[in-house]
């Protein structure tokens, strides 16, 4: 079902972004003739970009409302993406942090603890900056690829019991089985130790083989395997599950990956993937073992 979008207002954007940054984006987009860079970083904008970015946030918020109403996992097909957007800096094609605003909004309204699970090829530096106060962030990503953050030493637990977990993957790639098994291990940790009240997936598909910007050599079918893992996790926790589109620059890969996810949820499929934990690279296994012993 398609839900009508809306433009998120300044008060909603301010859950993550200071007003001075919101005003800067509005001012620079309004003054833009043709296409140019936002002054804070590598983000191409035109005169419509401020409105489009507000709609992206509004769409993600409306999609989460749909999950709460119907109980069914929902996918927010939005652009621009958001996970690189830091509170006062847009970068990496991102203007406002869509998933971060959703998580802050949900926590502010209900007190729910939100886990953001990021499968994009790139590290979500902007989302990482929001960890704490009810938000946890777990990311697998190529490292030290753009933006260079999210290294193996960047693991933490906040005073509020939220966690930051970074799973840096060698940019030369990882097997499809290893990638799926990694997220199965993460799901087990989230279920057993973290137990969030809501799950938001930063669903970027630039990890798929053939993506011109990313490419970790992973098959498109991984998206369906991850969806089954996330469905089982959400069902076990009784947690609403929302996907929000991030990167992915091969339109066929993005389309087929989303269809894989939709097919799994439409069929009500949920369960373990059968991927062998031995396929996870040793460095990532060591990180997961350390994370599993974080005091919570």
Your description of this structure?
- The chain is globular.
- The protein has one domain: Arginase, Chain A, CATH 3.40.800.20.
- A hairpin with a 6-residue loop joins β1 (36-37) and β2.
- The chain is α/β, with parallel strands linked by helices and 296 residues long.
- The model has no long low-confidence stretch (mean pLDDT 96).
- The chain has helices spanning 10-13, 19-31, 49-70, 98-110, 125-128, 176-194, 222-237, 251-266, 282-292; strands spanning 36-37, 44-45, 74-76, 114-118, 135-142, 156-157, 163-169, 198-203, 241-245.
In short:
The protein is an alpha/beta fold and 296 residues long. It is 40% helix and 14% strand. The strands form two sheets. The protein has a seven-stranded mixed beta sheet with strand order 3-9-8-4-5-7-6, with helices on both faces. Strands 1-2 form a two-stranded antiparallel sheet.
CATH class: Alpha Beta
Q: Please give the count of helices.
A: 9
- Judging by the overall fold, what is the CATH architecture? 3-Layer(aba) Sandwich
Q: Radius of gyration in whole Å, from Cα?
A: 18 Å
Average pLDDT, to the nearest integer?
Answer: 96
- Fraction in helix: 25-40%
Report the principal-axis shape: globular
Structural class call reads alpha/beta
Distance between the termini: 38 Å
- Main beta-sheet strand count, sense and barrel state: 7 strands, mixed
The count of DSSP E runs of length 2 or more, i.e. the number of strands, is 9
Q: pLDDT below 50 for ≥5 consecutive residues: which ranges? A: none
Number of domains: 1
CATH superfamily: Histone deacetylase domain
Strand order of the largest sheet: 3-9-8-4-5-7-6
Q: Beta-strand level of the residues, as a percent range?
A: 5-15%
Say what the CATH topology is.
Answer: Arginase, Chain A
Order of helical and strand elements: HHEEHEHEHEEEHEHEHH
